[in-house]
Amino acid sequence: MSNVDLSVNLAGVTLKNPVVVASGTFGFGREYGQFYDLSELGGICAKGLTLHRREGNPPPRIAETPMGILNSVGLQNPGVDAFLEEELPFLRQYDLKVIANISGNTPEEYGIMCEKLSAAGVDLIEVNISCPNVKAGGLAYGTRPELAAEVTRVAKAHAGRTPVMVKLSPNVTDITEIARAVEEAGADALSLINTLRGMRIDVNTRRPILKMNTGGLSGPAVLPVAVRMVWEVAQAVKLPILGMGGVSKAEDAAQLMLAGASAVAVGTALFADPYAPIRVRDGLEELCRRQGLSAVSRLTGGVKPW
Amino acid sequence: MPIQQLCTIVEAKRLNEYAYAFTLEVGDMVRRHGLRAGQFLHIQCGHSRLLRRPLSVSLCGADAPQDTASIVFEVRGEGTAWLYRRKAGDTLDVLGPLGNGFRVDREDRLLLVGGGIGVPPLLGQAGFTRGRSTAVLGFRSADRAMLVDRFQEFCQAVFLCSDDGTLGRHGFVDAQLRDVLEKDKNFTAVLACGPKPMLKNVAKVAAEYGVPCQVSLEERMACGVGACLGCAVQMADGTMKHVCKDGPVFDAQEVDWNV
Predict the structure, then answer these.
(1) Could you tell me the fold of the domain covering B110-254?
(2) B120, B58 in Cβ contact below 8 A?
(3) Quick check: B227 and A60 CB within 8 A?
(4) What are the residue boundaries of the structural domains of chain B, listed by start?
């Protein structure tokens, strides 16, 4: 039986397999690196960085929901310089693509971070314009096409040869509108979806579980939303897509790829099973073999809509 | 280094109307991976719930044929409602050892202060310092008491309190703690586990008497390993630490008690 080619191309970056881990669910790799060799992964979207260190939001930050979780971590991170000094060298010991995820308060902050990250040679920069848990920047940039385009232009202008991938929010009426604006502004790839804004209330105390009242929903509950949005965006733009949202098994990843994603990210599923990304990778290989596909990339965009 | 392991329940015991104790076979988690009481295991509670449940280890040992660890839990929600229906012989999907337990030496003379479901994680410390430590255990009412005989077996003295006066002294543990320290301040440390308002009061009393205090904290948790930064606790210096990776045991002095 011939081997399945698992490699995929994302904005000119070759991932040896299509499974990366989603930003904010995997830290900078050290924790899950205790369980397995990080070189098993196609890539890592590192924990979201800001120009300066952030302590994040007050607890509670986590609320479990039916087949999902709400979080309001709020971009707690050590800042881009600490990442470059302490975390990037650690990740470079492994054979995986390093995707740095950044959030700024202003377009200029995105630019400064892109310059630093590009100079340090990260493989890809994921521009987060969709964090629902911070007041400045974050989601505000992701819900207005002209602001999304502006951040994209500034990021591109400062990223040198490093490809820029813009992470889109699902908390919009028409995601294709943002996708097109970002494409026109020069983005090299898109990643979607970020979390959906949600809320859970303790009926006895009448208090929201999260101290921030609302948070971002992730996990299996959001998979169908992600599949639909990847499908819509794939038809609207020519950019390659990193699909994410609720992937916990190979069939979920295959759905996102059929809808149009070139690669997929596994996130929340890690919390139930640290080995989820590896199982998704192995399952995708098995699925391709079963379907007689020589390469996993053949799945991309293969949906046959009615 | 934490591992993922399928663990068999070798004993499932009901401690009172609300609390259950499971003894698990944990492979070589004690001998090889250094599991200690006060650390926690992250346990999957059925496939319809995404998140594992962090449960503190009350006792553990390097046993044959496998190491064992005991966990105690009350039925609080859907996860623990699934868990209490497991029986001896069933297996659980476990991540562990996780977190940092209490920092103790065998020669320590400890003052253990537990409230409710915070009582079990102190049992291992009582056993470790057998015959040297004193325990102050508080429960809401007599019907919620648990493991009292085990503490009496391990400790030099055990003081009981209850919120409603149905067991031991009528009142909170911090008042009892104050009385103990008033007579005898010669303890290596106060170790406390229980609800946060209780811990705040215990920390205050320990500080007044100049005895170092370690507290075991709880927070809503997702990954359990330090990756997601969900289980944050605010520190006195304005930074955030995380129960799963930096704790669950913290120095009482480093915690911000005013949030």
Answers:
(1) Rossmann fold (3.40.50)
(2) yes
(3) no
(4) 3-98, 110-254
